[in-house]
């Protein structure tokens, strides 16, 4: 039987709306604050009273001298910035109010090697004018449906720049802003991931990735989404035992009424198979089981396994403007320490973050019983996550190291790092400093058939 997917999705979405009240959009007068006392993406333009967080002055929108275009490893736009002070296990109590529980646990677990070099805060996030216009439109039209299961009335920008409703609704809105955040239109990248063992040993898994952010297709609108936020392709290049394999994901806007579509290509069998388990806490083999499917991109996927609560804003030290760790030619061996990445290559700044807590629902199964997310108020990137085991003990600490990709412009992570405090191992995703290029952004709009299972097989067997 043939059917129109858009019509079917619309009918299912209507049912989900009927089943749960929609989270209302804000008024026009509230939306008019965007670009005035609020940034175009919803954070206060004003800094804090002490001046340690500055006013937002428009962000970083122009590349520094010497930068030749997308794909070139980024030149540090702040080369003269010096470390203001360094937080260590010895003085962490002095800064305790501005540290996440996960960062405190890193000091306690690795007291002689882990440290946080703190720099001047630079609110570098910026977005293109057309995205800013969409954000303002979304503010008065976006709604949450199905108890956080999906959104409607939004396209091409953060759906909820101004949070509203109760603490549960605000938590959903923060997470959906993260899920749909601005990261360009079409991006390709060759990079590696590693699982670093207790003795510092590791082996690279290298792949070629392509992402088309359908939600930001300038030639489309909400009616053309077909319930797909983005299309993702990854082809494994090495090591030989994994080479030739591939993954295709079509990330859905409402994963409860239509779970994400995933396929895998097995090079040995030369077959494409559905991959229905690429979600929730399914372990990712290339990470040596240090990363779950929904850990990828710091967090992704459906919200339905957890009860969500917005805990307000905090001023804490987070990784930000991390250019040094992504500079061309930096050896992976210099980045990867025995217990964690080289702290001398990181940059931490004081920023305001939204704090969201997720507690596993009764009767649901997931390896994490509780998760606490720290989401940058400017870029809506989740940059720190504390993850707890079934006994309620802090187990894993996730860190996203962001920088401004000034060719977009916009802030996105350079590396994502996953620490297992109990096993004393960690996993790094996104290494590319030994590659000739970094992420390549393009305004090209690929044909959606390019991201089909049939295309996956044709491209994999070349």
Automatic annotation (TrEMBL):
Keywords associated with the record: Signal
Pfam family, one: DUF1329
InterPro entries assigned: DUF1329
Keyword Endoplasmic reticulum: no
Disordered as annotated region, ranges: 32-75
Secretion signal, residue range per the UniProt entry: 1-24
Official protein name in the record: DUF1329 domain-containing protein
């Amino acid at each position: 039987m043939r059917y129109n997917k858009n019509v079917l999705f619309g009918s299912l979405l209507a049912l989900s709306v009927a089943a749960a009240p929609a989270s209302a959009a804000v008024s026009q007068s509230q939306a008019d604050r965007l670009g005035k006392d609020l940034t175009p993406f919803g954070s206060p333009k004003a800094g804090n009273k002490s001046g340690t967080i500055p006013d937002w002055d428009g962000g970083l929108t122009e590349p520094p001298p010497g930068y030749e275009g997308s794909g070139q490893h980024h030149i540090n736009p702040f080369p003269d910035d010096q470390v203001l002070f360094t937080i260590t296990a010895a003085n962490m109590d002095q800064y305790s109010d501005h540290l996440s529980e996960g960062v405190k646990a890193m000091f306690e677990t690795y007291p002689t090697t882990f440290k946080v070099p703190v720099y001047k805060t630079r609110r570098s996030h910026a977005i293109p004018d057309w995205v800013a216009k969409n954000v303002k439109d979304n503010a008065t039209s976006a709604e949450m449906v199905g108890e956080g299961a999906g959104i409607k009335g939004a396209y091409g920008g953060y759906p909820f720049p101004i949070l509203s409703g109760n603490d549960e609704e605000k938590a959903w809105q923060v997470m959906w802003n993260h899920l749909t955040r601005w990261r360009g239109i079409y991006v390709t990248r060759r990079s590696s991931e590693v699982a670093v063992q207790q003795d510092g040993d590791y082996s690279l898994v290298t792949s070629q990735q392509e992402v088309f952010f359908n939600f930001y297709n300038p030639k489309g609108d909400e009616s053309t989404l077909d319930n797909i936020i983005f299309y993702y392709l990854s082809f494994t290049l090495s090591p030989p035992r994994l080479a030739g394999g591939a993954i295709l994901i079509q990330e859905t806007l409402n994963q409860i009424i239509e779970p994400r579509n995933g396929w895998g290509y097995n090079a040995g069998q030369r077959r494409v198979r559905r991959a229905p388990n690429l979600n929730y806490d399914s372990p990712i083999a290339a990470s040596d089981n240090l990363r779950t499917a929904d850990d990828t991109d710091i967090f992704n996927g459906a919200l339905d396994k957890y009860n969500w609560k917005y805990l307000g804003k905090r001023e804490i030290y987070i990784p930000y403007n991390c250019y040094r760790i992504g500079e061309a030619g930096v050896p992976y061996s210099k980045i990867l320490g025995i217990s964690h990445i080289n702290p001398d290559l990181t940059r931490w700044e004081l920023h305001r973050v939204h704090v969201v807590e997720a507690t596993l629902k009764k009767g649901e199964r997931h390896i994490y019983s509780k998760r606490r997310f720290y989401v940058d108020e400017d870029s809506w990137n989740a940059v720190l996550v504390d993850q707890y085991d079934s006994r309620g003990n802090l187990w894993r600490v996730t860190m996203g190291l962001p920088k401004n990709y000034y060719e977009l412009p916009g802030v996105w992570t350079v590396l994502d790092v996953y620490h297992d405090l109990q096993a004393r191992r960690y996993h790094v995703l996104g290494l590319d400093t030994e590659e000739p290029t970094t992420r390549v952004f393009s305004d090209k709009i690929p044909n959606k058939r390019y991201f089909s299972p049939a295309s996956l097989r044709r491209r994999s067997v070349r």
